[in-house]
Amino acid sequence: MSGNTDAAMAKLLELRASIDNIDAALVHMLAERFRCTKAVGHLKAVHDLPPADPAREERQIARLRRLADDANLDPDFAEKFLNFIIHEVIRHHEAIAEEHGNGAARNGDA
C-alpha cells in the first residue's frame, strides 16, 4: 500500500473507533431512557392514567425537530427516530397497564 493509502486506512480505523464508541453511548442512553419511561408506565398504571399523552408527544417532536435543526441534523430523520421510540414506549406502557389490570390500554409518556 502507498503512504496515502496507509494514512487513509489509519484515519478510517480512527473514525470507525469513534463511531463504535458513539454507538455504545447511544445504546446506554436508550437503555436509561427506557428505564425512566418504564417507571412512568408503572406510575401511570398505578394511577389508571392513559398510556399515551398525545399533547406531550407533539411537544417532544417539535422540541426534537428544533434541537436537530440547531445541530445540523435532518429534522425529518430526528422526528422519525423519536416516533419509533414513542411507539415502543406506548407499547410498553400498554403492557404495563394490562399487567396492572387496567381496562383497555387507552392512550406513553414520550
From TrEMBL:
Q: Which residues form the Chorismate mutase domain?
A: 6-97
First-tier enzyme category under EC: isomerase
User: What EC number(s) does this enzyme carry?
Assistant: 5.4.99.5
SMART domains noted in UniProt = CM_2
Name the Pfam families for this protein.
CM_2
The record's keywords, sorted A to Z, are: Isomerase
Q: Which GO terms describe its molecular function?
A: chorismate mutase activity
This chain's protein is named: chorismate mutase
